[in-house]
Design a protein that fits this description.
Layout: E1 21-22, E2 29-30, H1 50-77, H2 81-88, H3 97-115, H4 124-129, H5 134-148, H6 152-170, H7 175-185, H8 193-228, H9 236-260, H10 264-270, H11 272-296
Antiparallel strand pairs: 1-2
Length: 297
């Protein structure tokens, strides 16, 4: 019996166009469309065309922005889902916790600057006249300015320009106390330590975005209702704050139940996040005041 004829070697087209190439990113040899070492894709002439650029724009919108949209939708409408997904290992579908926090931080301070509002960044006059710590702040500032030979009138613009930068940089100080509170409330519920930090990052991100997105709308609606009812708009700040605090408490209650579970009483304690936030805000403002004062005089 004659030897059977060997089949011809597959052509390049039959192999799907696979040829050996050198990855320009890591220098490894590859024979598939993607480098097996670093994942870089093989460049072709079509990748440099206008259509390829448009295709990349479309892909970025549908993949990256789609993931971002899914993340912030869950942050608002499914409290605790992002932290639970992190705990269970479902992380690819959402933006990472610290990135969520950074995006919320940037959005918050951008809109605050745009609207001229002051929630975390206060002027010099506000620090020394309108806060619970104002008597002590005024005493410290007066002594500091006298030593530096600077008048309050000339210093206030300097302080007001620097305080915004410090307020943005130091907002991360909200995370440790919130993580500590989450740990204290969840005692007896088996959760790794990192989960408390992730929960705190998501909570602070939600809180910042709540003030960014719903804050102006709530202020407008409340202001309109007060004018219609013939009431003084001096009530606006108090009512506006309580509405946003109530929404935050509802979020914390639902998120704590989803992540930590437990009894109704324990979940109710989760809503204490928002009550805890009030003294934290005051300590934060005073810390920003001191850092700004001592770094600009």
């Amino acid at each position: 019996m004659a030897d059977s004829e060997q089949p011809p070697a597959p052509s390049e087209a039959e192999r799907g166009g696979a040829t050996r190439w050198t990855c320009q990113t890591c220098g490894a040899a590859a024979s598939t469309a993607y480098c097996g070492v670093c994942g870089e894709r093989r460049l072709s002439a079509r990748d440099l065309g206008v259509l390829a650029l448009l295709a990349q724009v479309f892909e970025s919108i549908t993949s990256v922005d789609g993931r971002a949209f899914r993340t912030f939708r869950a942050l608002f409408l499914e409290p605790g889902e992002l932290t639970l997904a992190f705990l269970e290992g479902r992380r690819k579908q959402y933006v990472a916790p610290f990135q969520v926090f950074l995006i919320a931080n940037v959005a918050f301070f951008f809109l605050q600057s745009l609207l001229g509002a002051q929630v975390l960044s206060n002027t010099f006059a506000s620090h020394v006249e309108k806060q619970v710590y104002s008597p002590r702040a005024l005493e410290i500032a007066t002594e500091r300015l006298q030593k530096a030979g600077i008048t309050r009138e000339s210093y206030e613009p300097v302080f007001d320009g620097a305080v915004d930068v410090n307020a943005k940089a130091l907002v991360v100080l909200f995370v440790p106390p919130c993580a500590l509170l989450a740990w204290l409330i969840s005692l007896g519920r088996s959760r790794p330590g990192g989960v408390h930090w992730v929960f705190a990052l998501h909570f602070v991100a939600f809180w910042l975005l709540l003030f960014t997105t719903l804050g102006p709308l709530a202020a407008l609606l409340i202001s309109t209702a007060l004018r219609v009812a013939g009431q003084s708009e001096r009530l606006l700040d108090a009512i506006w704050s309580w509405v946003l605090m109530a929404l935050s408490a509802i979020w914390a209650y639902r998120a704590f139940g989803r992540v930590y579970g437990g009894s109704l009483a324990r979940r109710a304690l989760g809503a204490a996040f928002i009550a805890f936030l009030i003294p934290v805000i005051r300590v934060y403002r005073f810390a920003v005041f001191l850092i700004t004062l001592y770094s600009t005089t």
